[in-house]
Design a protein that fits this description.
Chain lengths: 114, 111
């Protein structure tokens, strides 16, 4: 596709349920980022991949959060035993390598934990 | 990355220029100034970036002061579709680091 694609667009999970959020980056984009955006706040960094390597996961809020990008393209963010505070929009972004490059964002997945 | 400071909100009349300020007084010599915007229910969208020279593209102009401690994003003829949160971000060139978003400026374009 032409842009970053995320699915599902909306997800409602019962507290304690596991969820998996998918990101299809732009083809050829080496770098992939996940962000969490709470209502009324700016996006907060979660984790970063360069190809299949997860180079930075310092933003993951707990060990219930796990991300992978096994073949260096599609990425999945998994949240285990969801809690109400996990309710947020999860954004994925990708960009090419380079000195100064722009990041392209998907529309996000809105997760609501009930 | 340098911290940036923006006003929380601004209004602008449709058809007029919108001037969005950003302070980045601790910016270092190899940090670029990036601007993104986020329209309601969408992901952030890249607008423009610059190092020390003024920049212009089809979306906006970026004016950076000579001392690089502040910048202004200019939307020359604001439309209702420009209503969004605008983020000013400082990022080291060549860095694989993530964008660090602050709270941004909510721009409301009024009819």
């Amino acid at each position: 596709g032409a842009g970053v694609s995320q699915s599902p667009r909306y997800k409602v999970a019962k507290r304690g349920q596991d969820v998996a959020l998918r990101c299809d980056p732009i083809s050829g984009h080496v770098s992939l980022f996940w962000y969490q955006q709470a209502l009324g706040q700016g996006p907060e960094f979660l984790t970063y991949f360069q190809n299949e390597a997860q180079l930075d996961k310092s933003g993951l809020p707990s060990d219930r959060f796990f991300a992978e990008r096994p073949e260096g393209s599609v990425s999945t963010l998994k949240i285990q035993r969801t809690q109400q505070e996990d309710s947020a929009v999860y954004l994925c972004a990708s960009r090419v390598q380079g000195v100064v490059t722009e990041a392209f964002f998907g529309q996000g997945t809105r997760l609501t934990v009930v | 990355d340098a911290k940036t400071t923006q006003p929380p909100s601004m209004d602008c009349a449709e058809g007029r220029a919108a001037n969005l300020p950003c302070n980045h007084s601790t910016i270092s010599g190899n940090e670029y100034v990036y601007w993104y915007r986020q329209i309601h229910s969408q992901g952030p969208q890249y607008i423009i970036h610059g190092l020390k020279n003024n920049e212009t593209n089809e979306m906006a102009s970026l004016i950076i002061t000579e001392d690089r401690k502040s910048s202004t994003l200019i939307l020359p003829h604001a439309t209702l579709r420009d209503t969004a949160v605008y983020y000013c971000i400082a990022l080291i060139s060549g860095s694989a680091r993530q964008l660090t978003f602050g709270s941004g400026t909510q721009l409301t374009v009024l009819p």
